[in-house]
Write a structure and sequence with these properties.
alpha+beta; Small Protein B, Chain: A; 7-stranded antiparallel β-sheet; 7 strands; globular
């Protein structure tokens, strides 16, 4: 299965601890698909909700396609997510727990269809973020030391 990444939410793994991931399809307009094929999308402030037994993607930015009729679409409209009923029901009950949210991790094409990878996430505290930065820095230094050691 060929996948082509359109956009990733790079802040997600820094700001949240990802507990589980899900794949969902998106209900899109034609001008939105054209804009995505041009590689333009933003997931920075986006999140997903479960409302009335349906899943929705809120706050994802897909800029209007330049050649669309009548100005295209609303770039920040709420878009419906396509998931199995049992997944939506399970997510709805899980999201009712305190401190959990559903955030998009990446937007991609899979066999010609637009998919979004959603992460069930718990927000990190400030000290957790500092710990992540320290661990990343230590890994970098260790990798650098190993490289210099193998050269000698």
């Amino acid at each position: 299965m060929a996948t082509k990444t359109i956009s990733t939410n790079r802040r997600a793994r820094f700001d949240y601890t990802i507990l589980d991931t899900y794949e969902a399809g998106l209900v899109l307009l034609g001008s939105e698909v054209k804009s995505l094929r041009a590689g333009r999308a933003g997931l920075g402030d986006a999140y997903a909700i479960v409302k009335d037994g349906e899943a929705w993607l809120v706050g994802a930015h897909i800029p209007p396609y330049g050649f669309a009729r009548d100005g295209g679409h609303d770039p920040h409209r709420t878009r419906k997510l396509l998931m199995h009923r049992y997944e939506i029901d399970r997510l709805g009950s899980t999201l009712a727990e305190k401190g959990l949210t559903l955030i998009p991790l990446r937007l991609y094409f899979k066999d010609g269809r637009v998919k979004v990878e959603l992460g069930l996430a718990k927000g990190k505290a400030r000290y957790d973020k500092r710990e992540t930065l320290k661990r990343r820095q230590a890994d970098r230094e260790m990798e650098r030391a190993m490289r210099h050691r193998s050269i000698d």
